[in-house]
Automatic annotation (TrEMBL):
InterPro entries: Tle1-like_cat (IPR018712). Pfam families: T6SS_Tle1-like_cat (PF09994). Residues 27-262 form the T6SS Phospholipase effector Tle1-like catalytic domain. It comes from Paramarasmius palmivorus. The lineage of its organism: Eukaryota, Fungi, Dikarya, Basidiomycota, Agaricomycotina. This is T6SS Phospholipase effector Tle1-like catalytic domain-containing protein. Residues 1-24, 180-221, 288-310 are annotated as: Disordered. Residues 289-310 have a biased composition (Polar residues).
Length: 452
């Protein structure tokens, strides 16, 4: 990403991630303690919020990115946004305190605070890599991290081979059952309070109507454009950190190229450094042509997903003339090298992580069709993530590089692809170079879509 003066494009706010290899000795440092109990989560979110206060002007496009804990921080920051004026720093801790409250008082105060002190700001693009389900050994969960109607575009790269118990992934949910149930309970409580207070009943009824009208108006907002894609590799293979940034080949380069392409396709307006794009394996000229031709119809998109599965010899990037043929070939070679590079399993590299695998921990399971939520106590024992059957007409989106790895190495992801949560031990991935007929049947059975 190009960095210019703040007056021109806005200097990006960043925090420096730590590589897994940098903390292999597990020294007890403030940073390690922060990862354990998440005692600095509030400061990470508030620092990002203060940066926006200082730099945001009306009409700016806000794009937020994050990986791992940073991904959770990014989603938390997106949920907190209505921008306070730059001079009003003393209100930030108060805004955070209200944001972290999930009771009726907290919700009402947050709503009034935004209306009084904040300028409305929509998130143009929220791009994250492998958001973990709980932050730290002591879970810290915040409102609007599962979904957020204030986000226009959401992109999420997830790791197929991460299987540590404290690194459960957190997907996007359009209508979180727990938040929906909370709102219903609060409405019912408000109704009962109104019935017992006869003198103030009329005023409360009018207020309830106003709140319902505002809620109905908010529900009419455009639905968030969500795309969550699975990639081969463990947590730090997908988000970066398993190897130094300049290492080639690397699995992290695949998800980064995908995220850059998504930024271009959704026309975020982010300016990227052309030389760094070339170093990443992306040709800027080809990227701009892909972007200009990306507005295909839904029918064309659906037809393309039903074509023959992508294997290395069939990977193709559209070009306007033959002069780009060499570049396309180089990109294909880069894709193949990165797709077949080494996976760094942290449970093998650092066996101290196994301590948590034998500790009984509570996990939350949801059944969306019946809006049921239940908890289960058990040991993870290194078990992979569970990818359940998608709801409605959605598909499980898996990056084409995963299929490349399957075809070349007989790769078997650690994640379990299941059709029924009660049979979570079921695993079925294509092995070897199966014929297209078998692969099509497998894809239809599990509602899988290979994506670029």
């Amino acid at each position: 990403m190009e960095t210019t003066s703040a007056a021109q494009e806005g200097e990006p706010y960043t925090t420096t991630p730590e590589r897994e290899e940098d903390r292999s000795d597990l020294k007890i440092t403030p940073k390690v303690m922060d990862e354990a109990i998440a005692w600095n989560l509030h400061s990470h979110v508030m620092h990002g919020y203060e940066f926006l206060m200082q730099n945001y002007t009306h009409g700016d496009k806000i794009c937020i990115f994050g990986f791992s804990r940073g991904a959770y921080t990014a989603r938390s920051l997106a949920g907190m946004i209505g921008i306070i004026p730059a001079w009003n720093f003393q209100q930030v801790p108060f805004a955070w305190k209200m944001y972290t409250r999930e009771d009726r008082v907290g919700w009402q105060q947050s709503k009034k605070f935004k209306e009084t002190f904040s300028a409305h700001a929509k998130i143009e693009f929220l791009g994250v890599w492998d958001t973990v389900d709980s932050v730290g050994i002591i879970p810290r969960r915040l409102p609007f991290t599962r979904s957020n109607t204030n986000v226009k575009t959401f992109r999420h790269a997830m790791a197929l081979d991460e299987h540590r118990v404290k690194f459960k992934f957190r997907p996007w949910e359009d209508t979180p059952p727990d938040e929906r149930a909370f709102r219903m309970r609060e409405k019912e409580r408000h109704r009962r309070e109104s019935e017992y207070d006869a003198d103030d009943h009329k005023a409360k009824e009018e207020k309830a109507k106003e709140e319902k009208a505002k809620e109905d108006h908010s529900n009419e907002k455009a639905k968030t454009d969500v795309k969550e894609v699975w990639f081969a590799g463990a947590h730090c293979d997908v988000g970066g950190g398993s190897v130094p940034n300049e290492t080639k080949p690397s699995l992290a380069r695949i998800s980064l190229r995908w995220m850059v392409r998504e930024c271009h396709k959704t026309e975020t307006g982010i300016l990227f450094d052309c030389k760094k794009l070339e170093a990443l394996g992306l040709d800027p000229a080809v990227l701009s042509k892909e972007t200009s031709g990306s507005s295909s119809s839904p029918d064309q998109t659906a037809a393309s997903t039903e074509s023959t599965p992508i294997i290395p010899s069939e990977v193709h990037i559209s070009t306007a003339n033959e002069s780009n043929a060499t570049t396309v070939k180089e990109e294909k070679d880069t894709d193949l090298e990165d797709a077949t590079s080494k996976i760094f399993d942290q449970l093998r590299r650092n066996r101290v992580w196994w301590i948590l695998e034998f500790i009984p921990l509570m996990t939350i399971h949801r059944k969306e069709e019946q809006r049921r939520v239940w908890k289960r106590l058990g040991c993870n024992l290194g078990g992979g993530r569970v990818i359940s059957k998608p709801k409605n007409e959605d598909t499980v989106k898996i990056h084409k590089s995963v299929y490349t790895r399957i075809m070349h190495e007989g790769y078997q992801p650690k994640a379990r692809l299941v059709r029924n949560e009660k049979r979570a031990s079921e695993r079925s991935w294509p092995t070897g170079k199966e014929n297209d007929t078998w692969h099509k049947a497998w894809r239809e059975r599990y509602k899988v879509e290979w994506v670029d």
